[in-house]
């Protein structure tokens, strides 16, 4: 799964945009603007990238109304990313426990260097 995650190679802020839209369902541009805390121009750029990638659907209503929804592809990607992050957290926890155990063994003198 890590290789698939790396292939897509999206910056972390794009993941923040995807998860914010997923949590909200259908949201307005201003909601994302306050949620992600970036400039409007930068957010517009991020939305264009995600829309071209097929992760989001951006609907323009009138002059200023912009509504954003997540597509099935975007929903699946955030699911995959969530699973990947769970595995990474479990690995990091296990790694910390092993390091503590080895450090304790080293202090006791049971580990041969």
Strand content: 5-15%
> Mind summarizing the main beta sheet?
3 strands, antiparallel
Any low-confidence stretches, pLDDT <50, length ≥5? 1-7
Assembly state here? single chain
Helix content: 55-70%
Task: Give the overall average pLDDT.
Answer: 81
The SSE string, one letter per element, is HHEHHEEH
Across the major sheet, the strand order is 1-3-2
In angstroms, what is the radius of gyration?
Answer: 20 Å
Query: Structural class of the secondary elements?
Result: alpha+beta
**Secondary structure: number of strands:** 3
Q: Helical element count?
A: 5
What tags apply to this protein structure?
113 residues, three-stranded antiparallel beta sheet, 5 helices, 13% strand, disordered N terminus
Describe the structure.
This protein is an alpha+beta fold and 113 residues long. The protein is built from five helices and three strands. The protein has helices spanning 2-8, 12-24, 29-36, 40-52, 72-108, and strands spanning 26-28, 56-61, 65-70. It has a three-stranded antiparallel beta sheet with strand order 1-3-2. It is elongated. Mean pLDDT is 81; it is low at 1-7.
Give the arrangement of secondary structure elements:
Layout: H1 2-8, H2 12-24, E1 26-28, H3 29-36, H4 40-52, E2 56-61, E3 65-70, H5 72-108
Antiparallel strand pairs: 1-3, 2-3
